């Protein structure tokens, strides 16, 4: 059964296969870390198990208060959606929205690998992430999608998203996290 989990090296092979599926789609941020000075790993570098482990460690550290992030970046918790050894997607929860993210970005972003799309994973990931966002003190969470991304719009709405407006080609929603 698929579940959100902290990034893990146990999905190395599947992660690389997913990377190949994404190709040159620059919206996929799977191998980027926002840690100051962290490299943007190439596919060849990530194929090396030691480099992959370093990438996983950098991405995981993005949530830590003591980690120095790249300019204008904010702490975020990155979770991967996995089914056993199979990497299905990535979800990030920004702990807050700062100036660079105040208008057009959201607290929660996600992506599902191309071969796993249209199976309800985006909806499941988003719903499963809401208690994590609540534990971070986020309620409601802003979630955005491109105006023409019907699948993402449906996922946000299925998770209880309430449309705020359209802003610069994006739909901006608020989703209750259930924070008590």
Automatic annotation (TrEMBL):
Coiled coil: none
Alphabetic keyword roster: Transferase
Sequence ranges assigned to domain N-acetyltransferase in this UniProt record: 74-160
Gene Ontology terms, MF aspect: acyltransferase activity, transferring groups other than amino-acyl groups
InterPro entries found in the cross-reference section: Acyl_CoA_acyltransferase, GNAT_dom
Protein name per its UniProtKB record: GNAT family N-acetyltransferase
């Amino acid at each position: 059964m698929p579940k959100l989990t902290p990034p893990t090296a146990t999905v190395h092979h599947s992660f690389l296969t997913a990377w190949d599926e994404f190709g040159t789609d620059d919206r996929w941020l799977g191998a980027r870390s926002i840690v100051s000075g962290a490299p943007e790993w190439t596919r060849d570098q990530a194929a090396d198990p030691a480099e992959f482990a370093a990438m996983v460690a950098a991405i995981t550290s993005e949530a830590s208060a003591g980690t120095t992030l790249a300019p204008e970046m904010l702490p975020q918790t990155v979770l991967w959606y996995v089914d056993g050894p199979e990497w299905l997607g990535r979800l990030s929860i920004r702990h807050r929205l700062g100036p660079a993210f105040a208008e057009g970005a959201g607290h929660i972003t996600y992506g599902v690998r191309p071969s796993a799309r249209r199976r309800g994973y985006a909806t499941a990931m988003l719903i499963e992430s809401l208690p994590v966002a609540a534990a971070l003190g986020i309620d409601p969470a802003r979630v955005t999608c491109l105006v023409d991304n019907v699948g993402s719009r449906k996922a946000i709405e299925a998770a209880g998203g309430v449309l705020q407006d359209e802003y610069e080609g994006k739909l901006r929603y608020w989703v209750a996290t259930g924070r008590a």
